[in-house]
Amino acid sequence: MGSSLNTTSTNLPPGAICLPSFISAEEEAAFVGHLDACEWSTELKRRVQHFGYRYDYRARAVTADAYLGPLPVWLAPLAERLRETGVFCSLPDQVIANEYLPGQGISAHVDCVPCFGDAIVSVSLLSSCEMVFRERRSGAKRAVRLEPRSAVLLTEAARYNWTHEIPARKSDAVDGVRIERARRISLTFRKVIRTG
Ligand SMILES: O=C(O)CCC(=O)C(=O)O
Ligand SMILES: [Fe+2]
Fold first, then answer.
1. Domain named Fe2OG dioxygenase: which ranges (predicted)?
2. Which residue's alpha carbon is at the smallest distance from atom 2 of ligand 1?
């Protein structure tokens, strides 16, 4: 990964890296504006938008007919930055935007192994939240606070051997500090390796 990147890994599972201030406040506001100008899907408890390829939550697959087209022009430069900085080896081509209102979360999961490549990157907008990791074999637990405008990269063990989740709650106490959540949006970047 590019040595100019600021990274931290405190309390993250092996293979996970946090990139604080990966985007600027101006970029954050622009992403939120573009997302809110697009149509949010209400198929889940939290609202989502899919770009590049649609992910089928029921089939747990990127189905053969799932290609939506290239990433929108306002999103493509961030995918390009992820490749240029070495966070991704190849250009990510699938993005899911997740919106979490206070009290909403995402249950423990490993991102689809046959569908997506070995790097998963989630960029946080607007609010912090806690992300919890659990090692599948041992049940070991690690929790970190994801800060707005940061990116978290999951590779290797963090990608395959640990689940990740965002507990559905209205505030988080991490390292003894309680912080109320606000509306949070994440942009999760992946490279599709198999469809159908
Ligand atoms: O909101 C996040 O940061 C995580 C999203 C996530 O885990 C996913 O879309 O698979
Ligand atoms: Fe995930």
1. 91-193
2. 186
Q: Where are the alpha helices (DSSP H) in 43-135?
A: 76-84
Largest CA distance in the chain: 47
List the domains of the chain with CATH numbers: 16-190 (2.60.120.1520)
Closest CA to 81 of 10, 8, 187: 187
Q: Which of 18, 35, 106, 162 to mutate to test the pocket of ligand 1 (most atoms within 8 A of CB)?
A: 106
User: CA triplet 174, 175, 179: central angle to 5 degrees?
Assistant: 40
Which residue ranges have their beta carbon within 6 Å of ligand 1?
96, 98, 106, 111, 122, 164, 166, 186, 188
What pLDDT does residue 64 have? 84
What ipTM does this complex have? 0.99
